Amino acid sequence: MNIGDRSRAERERLGSNQADFGATAGVSKTAQFNYEKGDLSPDATYLAAIAGAGVDVLYVITGNRTVPLSEGLAPRSAALVNNFENMAGAVQKPDTKTGTN
User: Fold this and answer.
1) Is residue 75 part of a domain?
2) Which residues of the chain have pLDDT under 70?
3) One MF term in GO for this entry (predicted)?
4) What is the pTM of this model?
């Protein structure tokens, strides 16, 4: 499997067609087709855009899945982390001690 194959797999996992997925990434359907075919290599702008749409970009690039933060936690802790990650950004307040979310 190459980057194009994995990009297509992620698009299909998200239930999107090439035209809509390309629009989300700021490219044409033809460009999306060429990425998936392996005729074009995606740039950082494209990868950032598809990451924002829920694509596992590490998987697209390397073939290795991103491990969810909640993996390996006790069920109750994992549920808390998942709930936090699914909150709207405005609801997630920065940690005043570290300055991070």
Assistant:
1) yes
2) 68-71, 88-101
3) DNA binding
4) 0.66
